[in-house]
Amino acid sequence: MTKKASVIGQRRKAASEDSSASYQARRKEICEAAIQVFHRQGFSGASLSAVAAELGIDRASLYYYFSSKDELFDAITTSVLEENAALARRIADSPISPRRKLRELVAAMMVSYGENYPLLYIYIREDLRQVADSRSDWSKHMRGLNRQIENAFIEIIEQGYEDRSLRRIGSARMVAYGILGMLNWSHRWYRPGKGESAEEAGRTFAELALAGLESPY
Amino acid sequence: MTKKASVIGQRRKAASEDSSASYQARRKEICEAAIQVFHRQGFSGASLSAVAAELGIDRASLYYYFSSKDELFDAITTSVLEENAALARRIADSPISPRRKLRELVAAMMVSYGENYPLLYIYIREDLRQVADSRSDWSKHMRGLNRQIENAFIEIIEQGYEDRSLRRIGSARMVAYGILGMLNWSHRWYRPGKGESAEEAGRTFAELALAGLESPY
DNA sequence: ACGCTTTTCCACGATACTGTTGACAGAATT
DNA sequence: AATTCTGTCAACAGTATCGTGGAAAAGCGT
Where does the HTH tetR-type domain start and stop, copy by copy (chains A, B) (predicted)? Predict the structure, then answer.
């Protein structure tokens, strides 16, 4: 649904887009502010007024940099999620044992959530199935990235099932969802600098999923 | 913020409240419809118009049964969550081993999610920390129930740590969050009649958390 | 100091939602 | 048959939001 140069504002933006100077820097500033606001109020619950207020500027000024709330959201989330999906693929395809792959992937995901805090959580909270049709192209892309991560987990578990290094305690899909649940649910409790670090959480979750809680005695 | 009998509508409702007839039945119908709509669009994303449309009635008619969107939400969620919290308490206080407690609690929670589908998921999706101050009393109550469930898990794990039936792989709080994450994240993928049943999922998650994936060889 | 460009703001129209009001139709009651 | 009760509806006011237009302000190059 890209507008075909709707008179002004859009044209200004287009003009500033190619020859980018401090324009990109300001864009980034706005993104940072938006990340904070979206994290506090959720994407759908947050208004552009709130984002503008966070920076102490007028709401209309935002439209000089982003044509809509959706574009702002995309600019924020897309790149990081792409990185994350690539990371998952890389670990899944690496030539180590399924056990180690799983351990590393769990840890890496949690660390990524911590390092990019709170960016990925904003994305995680959004349920892509409910995104309006108007953004279905973008939504499909994002869902694809999501699926890549899911599939990385599923593949690893299936490999482990096949070489018998992992016990078959349920369908690979279900186990993968469980592990992803541990990781993704962290958006409700993880706060950097409070409680365990992301590394610690990642290690704990990896240990929980792989070795379990039961002691051998 | 309870209104003090705002003329009409409220008075009618008050009049119909004590002597309940088919009034309660219709209330339930509205609840059922609201559950569907809230599940599709999320609570904050859903409008009362949508709920009314689901039933093919006028939006204003809803106000004959519920004074606000919030009251509707409360009517839907409170009782079930209270039951769930009580269930968690009961299992945590039962005189069986921590291992069995954990297994049963995990399974019971997942089954409850399935049986009450999709009601509990509507609640899970709401992040209570972001509820407006206007409902802070209700919000506190609900957070309390949530905490009861959390604490049930934490206590069980700590018991297991102390009697050494569970390995100390991380703080009890962190492990509890991991398990709750597995369970709660099911709101993103669980659909009754599709894929694994809630019972199966519960068993798988309990096995995953307790015995882990790694095979002994 | 003067133009020109970049950036910001004030004001507007459009839309959507909430909660309320007073009136209306059918059933129940008298 | 008249009247109350129950449930419904169309319409209104109030608020919040989004995206746009045009004008003001700030930079900066000469």
Answer: 24-84
The pTM for the full model equals 0.91
**Is strand C within 7 Å of residue A26 (CB)?**
yes
In chain B, % of residues over pLDDT 90 = 62
**C16 C1' to B45 CA distance, Å:** 12
Residue from A159, A166, A171, A157 nearest A106 by CA: A157
Residue A78 · residue A142 · CB < 8 Å: yes
Nearest nucleotide to B65 by CA–C1' distance? D7
Residue A107 C-alpha from the chain's centroid: 15
List all nucleotides in chain C with at least one atom under 7 A from a protein Cβ.
6-11, 16-22
Peptide bond into B118 cis (omega under 30): yes
**CA A191 to mean position of chain CA atoms:** 16
Backbone φ, ψ for residue A108 (5° rounding): -65, -40
Q: Which is nearest to B67 in space by CA: B1, B138, B139? A: B1
**Partner residue opposite B170 with nearest CB, options A169, A183, A204:** A204
Q: At A49, which helix (H) or strand (E)?
A: helix A48-55
Confidence of residue A1 (pLDDT cuts 50, 70, 90): very low
Distance A43 CA to D23 C1' (A): 32
Task: Provide the β-strand partners of residue A194.
Answer: A191
Topology classification of domain B20-66: Arc Repressor Mutant, subunit A (1.10.10)
From the Cβ of B132, is strand D under 7 Å away? no
Whether domain A10-67 has CATH 1.10.10.1020: the reply is: no
Per-residue pLDDT tens over the stretch A98-131: 999 999 999 999 999 999 999 999 999 988 777 6
What is the distance between the alpha carbons of residues A5 and A14, in angstroms, rounded to a whole number?
A: 9
| Structure confidence by residue, pLDDT tens digits, A154-213 | 999 999 999 999 999 999 999 999 999 999 999 999 999 999 999 999 999 999 999 998
Class of domain B76-210: mainly alpha
How many other C-beta atoms can be found within 10 angstroms of the C-beta atom of residue A129?
Answer: 9
For residue A113, CA distances in Å to A12, A99, A147, B124, B160 come to 36, 22, 17, 21, 30
Domain locations in chain A as residue ranges: 10-67, 77-210
| pLDDT, tens digit, 9 for 90 and up, residues B79-107 | 899 999 999 999 999 999 999 999 999 99
* CA gap A211, A203 in Å, rounded: 11
